[in-house]
Amino acid sequence: MSSLPAALPQAIVAAMRSVLPAGRCGLHEPEIAGNEWAYVKECLDTGWVSSVGSYVDRIEKDLATYTGAARAVAVVNGTAALHVALHLAGVRAGDEVLMPSLTFVATANAAHYLGAIPHFMDAEPHYLGLDIPKLAAHLDRVAIRKNGHVVNRETGRVIRALVCMHTYGHPVDLDPLVELCAAWGLKLIEDAAESLGSLYKGRHTGNHGLISTLSFNGNKIVTTGGGGAILTNDPALADRAKHLTTTAKQPHKWDFVHDEMGFNYRLPNLNAAMGCAQLEQLPSKLERKRALAASYAAALAGLSGLRFLTEPDFARSNYWLNVMLLDDAALLEPVLDATNAAGLQTRPAWRPMHLLAMHEGCPRMDLSTTEDVAGRLINIPSSPQMAGEP
Ligand SMILES: *Cc1c(COP(=O)(O)O)cnc(C)c1O
Questions:
Q1: How far is the CA of 66 from the centre of ligand 1 (A)?
Q2: Is 289 a catalytic residue?
Q3: How many domains does the chain have?
Q4: 2 pLDDT exceeds 70?
C-alpha cells in the first residue's frame, strides 16, 4: 500500500488506530498497577514521608542492582541529578560542556546552573544519538590541549565534560564515544533520563562514563511523581553525591555543621515508596513497550513517506517514546494536526537547544542533521498499557 502525500496524515491515523486501544491515547501516561498504594500508605501510616526513610535506601539499592551500577543516589528530579553530576565532574563557571542540541532543556539548564556554557553537538540520523565521527572531526578542528586541559581555541574556554543522551531510549554508540572522551581527557556523563531499561551491548546504559543520571518524571518509563537518580561505579563519587544532595551536613547527634555548599536534592521517602513499586513492574513495562513498538513497526511498514525508528543493532532499547521520521518536513504539521484531532497525542521533537534564544551565543558544531530531523520527527503514543496482550 502506498499513499499520496496528501493522504498520508489520514493513513497514519488509520495505521496507529489499528495498533492502539479505542479512545484518547496520551503520549506516555503513568501506569500505577502494583504495590504503589501499599508502600505509599505505609509511609503515611508511619509518618516517614520526608527526607529519611527505608524506601530511599531501598530504591537506591534496587536501582544499583537493576542497572549494574555500583551505586545509585536518589534525588528530587533528573535536572537536579544532572546539576550535581556536572558539579562532581568538575564543571565550574566559565567551562564549556559538550552536549547534544537534540535534547530536553534540562541537559542545558544543568550546565547553566553552574555558570558553564553548553557547546552543542550534532545528531546522527539513524537513531538520533550523537554523530561521533563528526564530533571527532569537530574537536580536531576547534580543540587544543593546554596545561592538561582541553581548550576551545575559538573561545579560549576549557571544555570540561561531555554529556551524551540516549534519545527516546535508543542508546548512543558508547564504545567509540568512551574512546574519544578518553583520548581527549574529557569527563563523560550519560544523561540516561530516557533509557532506564535500555542496554548497550548487554550492559545497562548509565554504566559507561564517570557518572550518569536518571529521571522519574511522570512521563518516564518509571515514575515517582517527580524524581531522579545519580548512578556511578565510583563509590567515593557516590558518597560525595549523597553528601552534596543532602545539604553537605556532617553526621552528628544534634549539631548542624555543613562542610561545603550543598543542595537539598534528596528524594522524599513518599516518592521513593512509589518508585520501589514502579521498579517491580519495569520488566513487564519493557516487554509491553517492545510489543507496542513491534506492532507500530508492522502497521506503519506499509506506508511510504516515513520511517519508524527501531533500535540499533548494538543495543536493546526500552522504546521509551516511539518515533516516526517523515520523509517530507512539509507534512509535519498536517500529521500532528490529524493525529491530535483523532485523539492520538503526538508531538514534534523538542525545539533544538541551539535554536532557543538563551543559547544564541553558545558554541556549536555544524548542526544540520539535528535541524533536519527535528523538522520531520513525531513522537507517538508509547505507554506500556497501550500494548495489546503480548
Ligand atoms: C526527562 C529528562 C530529564 C530530566 O527531567 P526532570 O523532569 O528534571 O526529571 C533530563 N534529560 C532528558 C533528556 C530528559 O528527557
A1: 20
A2: no
A3: 2
A4: no
As a whole number of angstroms, the distance between CA 255 and CA 59 comes to 28
Give the distance, in angstroms, between the CA of residue 306 and the centroid of all CA atoms in the same chain. 24
Q: What is the mean pLDDT of residues 353-362?
A: 97
Helices and strands per DSSP (H, E), number in the chain: 12, 16
The average pLDDT across 194-213 equals 98
pLDDT of 262 > 60? The answer is yes
pLDDT at residue 264 above 70?
A: yes
- CA–CA dist 102, 323 (Å, integer): 14
Q: Are 165 and 99 in contact (CB under 8 A)?
A: yes
Domain holding 203, by residue range, is 36-280
Q: Which atom of ligand 1 is nearest to the CA of 219?
A: 1
Residues 80-104 pLDDT 10s: 999 999 999 999 999 999 999 999 9
Query: How far is the centre of ligand 1, averaged over its atoms, from the C-alpha of 211 (Å)?
Result: 16
Q: End of a domain among 232, 256, 280?
A: 280
Catalytic residue (one of 187, 220, 242, 289): 220
pLDDT classification of 5: cutoffs 50, 70, 90: low
Distance CA 119, CA 105 (A): 13
CATH number at residue 326: 3.90.1150.10
Q: What is the pLDDT of residue 50?
A: 87
CA 103 to ligand 1 center in whole angstroms: 9
> What are the two backbone dihedrals, phi and then psi, of residue 2, each rounded to the nearest 5 degrees?
-115, 160
Ligand 1 residue neighbourhood (C-beta within 6 Å): 77-79, 103-104, 106-107, 165, 191, 193-194, 215, 217, 228
Q: What's the pLDDT band for 390 if we cut at 50, 70, 90? A: very low
Q: How far apart are the CA of 77 and the centre of ligand 1, in A?
A: 8
Q: Does pLDDT of 251 surpass 80?
A: yes
Distance in Å, CA 98 to ligand 1 centroid: 17
Residues 191 and 309 in one domain: no
Residue finishing a domain among 233, 253, 280: 280
> How many percent of the chain have pLDDT more than 70?
98
Nearest CA to ligand 1 atom 5: 78
Q: Give the pLDDT confidence score for residue 388 in this predicted structure.
A: 77
Pull the grid cell for residue 129: 544519538
* Pocket residue to mutate for ligand 1, from 215, 220, 231, 320, most atoms within 8 A of Cβ: 215
Q: How far is 299 from 321, CA to CA, in rounded Å?
A: 17
Q: Which atom of ligand 1 is nearest to the CA of 77?
A: 9
